[in-house]
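Hi X.,

You mentioned you wanted examples for the new student's onboarding notes, showing what a folding record looks like when two proteins sit in one file. Here is a clean example. The first protein comes first, with its sequence line followed by its structure tokens.
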Amino acid sequence: MPGNFHDTNVLIYLASGDPAKADAAERAVAMGGSISVQVLNEFAHVAWRKLGFSWDEVQSFLATIRGVLDVLPLTAAVHDEGLLLAARYQLSVYDAMIVAAALSGECDVLFSEDLQDGMAINGLTVFNPLKRFA
């Protein structure tokens, strides 16, 4: 399962004013990979509500990201798999949906700070970019 998947926090760090976090996120995104529609939605919410982005800035940032990373759809099958993963691994529903999307995209690496660095789920390994690219 070759490929990288990027959780929402990677994009938030990329857009943050924190140089160390932004650099780590940039290094992860530079490796390419995928995100899901959930990641787009979560980023839009956080960027507008917490980072103070205008809607034009949100759309511009996400247009750039969509040009760099593949966007995987949310489907009923991804949702069903996410629920199974949430129950099996005691994950939050939102984290489980991220894992399910990554698995649906045949990714083997999930860049995320939300899950335990090194955690493995069905051939997918979590890497915390803040630890890996510090």
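Then the second protein repeats the pattern, sequence line and then tokens:
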Amino acid sequence: MADCLFCKIAAGEIPVERIYENNDVLAFPDINPVAPVHILIIPKKHYATSIDLSEEAPELCAAMLKASTEVARFQGIDKSGFRLILNTNADGGQEIFHMHMHLLGGEYIGRLRGR
């Protein structure tokens, strides 16, 4: 999509530090990190939400999960642990409507409230 921030990043129109990249997936640091390691993992092709991705390209879901493993290794947090967050639609906290995962780590992330 022409006006999508993440599509522009994937196309190279907006420069980012490319932590991981293959033909289908791109990973780069979040500009507002909430943990010492906070990486965004996106499909290069536009899918607005995780629902769209899972219905239209389920194989890309596996590619993104594989990318998260590689990114965690590159960042040195694969052994200590990390959290993957995937927000879907407004009530799920999604702010940019290009499907993306947050990979958080580098410190103890903590428990979810009420658990």
